[in-house]
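Chapter summary example.
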Amino acid sequence: MRLDKFLAEAYVGRRKEVRNYIKEGMVKVNGELIIEPALEINESSDVIEYIGTVVVHTGKVYYMFNKPAGCITARKDAVNKTVFDFFDDVNMNGVFHVGRLDKDTEGLLLFTNDGEFEHQLMYPQKHIEKTYYFWALGTLDEEDEKKLQGGIYISKGEILTKPAKIEVQKCGRYKDLKNEMDIRILQNIDSNNFNQPVVSGYLTISEGRKHQVKRMLKAVGCYVVYLKRISIGGLMLDESLKKGEYRFLTEEEIQKLFEK
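The structure predicted for these 260 residues follows.
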């Protein structure tokens, strides 16, 4: 591996920056001062130092995280707890979240330090599907389902959404379904209005517009009170992970992300 690539991947700096560091005599390889950024090194056995500190190359990392509601998808925030606050026992330098989930949305969120991996997942033309489980106030009839499946306008000035998949699971009155709904996690629901209609189901989209699932369902008269992302591509959330827990992705799971 080239020395400048090694330092960039170890988050010493961007590729252009680390080249300057090397040329300025700030880097040693096996105790020898090196000023050539293109020098080939053995990242497994050579000892690389930057201004006297040994540089550790951790390689690419990929995490699955079960995001709880109530925290924001950001690295730091002066007021709210962030998703990074759950990773206090690992080095997250250079690691970033892939996409985001709203503060009140739960479920599958990925983290990596691999920019190409993020690009492949987030690039719109890749059409990577994401599936969400929801509870909403309102009803969904066949006409509503056709609108969601065929594409729908969710805001003035925006183009139609791409075709989605909708699968209704439960529908009825709140009084009949309340025991299947966790009241502690519901948003904007009047638990005393026992006759209000509620519906649950799965919505699968292949875009990433802001608040898209909520806005799509609102466009057909449904107001989301609970939302959880359960899959990305062919990768399902590991339900053995408690809210706020994470683990490494396996090689097989990384491949599943890109399955149609």
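To summarize the output: Residues 130-232 form a domain with the Alpha-Beta Plaits fold (CATH 3.30.70.1560).
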